[in-house]
Amino acid sequence: MGIDLEYFQDVQKVYTDLTGLHIIIADQKGNLLTQQKSTIFELIESQNKIENVCKEIIQNMPKFFRPLLYDILPGVKIIFTPIVLDAEVEYYIFAGCFAEYPTKQSVLTYLQKNSRKSKLLKNFDRFIREYTPEEILEKKHHLERMAEILSKQLLAEKLKRKIEVKNNEVNEIFQLLAEDYLSISDLLKRFFTSNPIIDFIGYAGRISPVQFEIKECLPLKRHLSGKTFFIGEGLLGQVAALKNEKVYSNLELDPRSSFFQKHGIYPKSIFCFPVIQKNDIIGLFFGGTCKVDSLENEVMSQARKTAAFIKIIENKLYWQKQALFNELRATVKNEIFHFMTSLQSPKSIQMFLLDMSINLTLTPFVSIAFLDRHKSSINMVSRGLSEEKVALYTNDLTNRFLNNKDSSPATTDPIPQLTNWGEKVIEIPIIYLDHLYGYLCIGLNNEIDEEDLLLYKILSKAGGLALYLEDNVHNIKSDQKIDSIIDLLEFIDPQSFIKATRAKKILNEFELYLLNPEINKKAITYAFYLIGYDEKIIKKIHHQATIDVFREYQLILNHSLSLSEASINVQILVLIWTYIQEEPNIPFLSKNTEINRDLINKFILYLSRSELKISEGLNVEQSLKTDNRFKALTKRESEILKLVLKGKNNQEIADQLYISGHTVKNHMTRIFQKLNVKDRSQVIAKIYQLSL
């Protein structure tokens, strides 16, 4: 153990002066750590030999924890004091030399006759002092206090080193986590090797809503790895159910530990930490000992940190998977739209589904089972299955879905199955408008993730739509084809679909305020849904007005065209799309100087009369009180203006204020004059600008 020798030397000097004794300090093996000039010890033995004497004393003395007297020569005594740390002797203090009153003269006489240590005999009166039993006891107390001071220093140094080690370990773990060099298995090994009291540790991952499987276990891999338990079952299952960390002690007779006992492990104490992700438990970090009935706080503290690091790894894996999933979904989205806009034949549809499915996840096989037009037979194409297994599987599907009419699927939900040879598979119906075209069959190594299943369901829906369009290629118009493809967007990208559908609703309502023959509502609507796609795909829909709007919008995004130069269709597209992005606050309405002012005023008027209630976001009272133009309004005019901002028309205002419609009209005329505006949309716009 490394120590602060300078501190030890300083303390030694203080207590040398305090006790009047010569002091040196040695380690457990008798190696001298400190120095003492002109010590009595050197008169007794040389420096090298005194070290040997210390070693001999330490080896021959029984274990002790209090200061002892020891005769280093007959009648010449030292005080031998242990320095204790964590109930173990780490160092020794040697303090001497002296004779016990009144033996000094008799000791000298004996040594003169029997000792050859001439230096000692010559300086005996000078260095060997005589102390009473009371004085010796006092010196023992001083040396015991010295040992306590050094013990506290050792403890502080030990804690400091431990903190440094832990900080270094934590920093190292964070570094490894940042560089993706650390796995859950690595964390378990680190914890296990640094805690000898622990006999086993493991990590269980959730494999279903109610079941967990032990993925990692050290060192008893052969006992626990791969074993499963249910939420609420036994010690681990209880933690999974309650989602709270737990430490179990005195488990020898506890029936809840039967899960471990039946696998040859007999724990006395167990800890278990849930790993929570998005308010749901995804795993359990656990460990235990067969040696003691309870675990120390230090072990639990380290276990808690390990659980936190496991959560970091799981979260990182989750977000990596989410990023991959989003990337895959974007790829699938573009590939599907590219494919749907260039349909060829049923066979090309089969091969598209097959190629996309096999590349989505690590799956043992993918099969596409298509029903013929009369639903009398099944044709299968497959990747990953032998011809023999394809024949077996085709026969199985035929028996289940064709020969037995009662077993025909009444749902579009995926169907989990086992093949004839015992392999897990999930069968996803390929359906469009209640017409069953076949099944997308995905072989499984493990339970399928929700994200992966969603991608396969998207593909199956795309396949159903593609087959429907191919069957009706001569009867479907271009607009119907685009509408069908847009319907698919609800499954491919639901967030974009919801946003585009909301924009479409606003456009349908806002159109009533425009009355402009140049507006192409269908082109703007299609642009809302296709706004995130590549221009090459948009060109394939063969709807020129939409292509023109989309291309113009892209020019604005690339700063190749100013918004003020854009067509009315694109300005409406930008206005509504920006409103949806910016709400509930819509500062762009007053700040945007590029969009046609009349268009903005009409949009504000529409908002004021719609359920969106623009007035909720305006500080109307403040505007009416502080702006001189509004101060000129009478109390009645102010009341009418507030109702205008709530979207009320003249008759509704009249009914609420118990006045005639003609009176309301006169008040509105005076309001326009005082505010220097032409209509109510300009009034709303002016108040909005003042309220920002």
Written account of the structure:
With 692 residues, this protein is of the alpha+beta class. It folds into four domains: 5-158, Beta-Lactamase, CATH 3.30.450; 184-320, GAF domain (Beta-Lactamase), CATH 3.30.450.40; 341-481, GAF domain (Beta-Lactamase, 2-Layer Sandwich), CATH 3.30.450; 493-691, no CATH class. 54% of the residues lie in helices and 16% in strands. It is built from 29 helices and 16 strands. A six-stranded antiparallel β-sheet has the order 8-7-6-11-10-9, with helices on both faces. Strands 1, 2, 3, 4 and 5 form a five-stranded mixed β-sheet that branches. A hairpin with a 6-residue loop joins β12 (366-371) and β13 (378-383). The longest helix is centred in the N-terminal third of the chain and has 46 residues, at 133-178. The protein is elongated, with a radius of gyration of 44 Å. The two termini are 69 Å apart.
Structural topology:
Elements: H1 5-19, E1 22-27, H2 40-44, H3 47-60, E2 68-73, E3 76-85, E4 88-100, H4 104-114, H5 118-122, H6 124-127, E5 129-131, H7 133-178, H8 184-194, E6 200-208, E7 211-218, H9 221-224, E8 228-230, H10 234-242, E9 246-248, H11 258-261, E10 269-277, E11 280-289, H12 297-340, H13 346-360, E12 366-371, E13 378-383, H14 387-403, E14 415-418, E15 424-432, E16 435-443, H15 450-471, H16 478-492, H17 494-510, H18 521-530, H19 535-539, H20 544-557, H21 568-582, H22 588-591, H23 597-609, H24 620-626, H25 628-631, H26 635-645, H27 650-657, H28 661-675, H29 680-691
Parallel strand pairs: 4-5
Antiparallel strand pairs: 1-4, 2-3, 3-4, 6-7, 6-11, 7-8, 9-10, 10-11, 12-13, 12-16, 14-15, 15-16
Helix pairs in contact: 1-7, 8-12, 12-15, 13-15, 15-16, 16-17, 17-18, 17-21, 18-20, 18-21, 20-21, 23-29, 26-28, 27-28
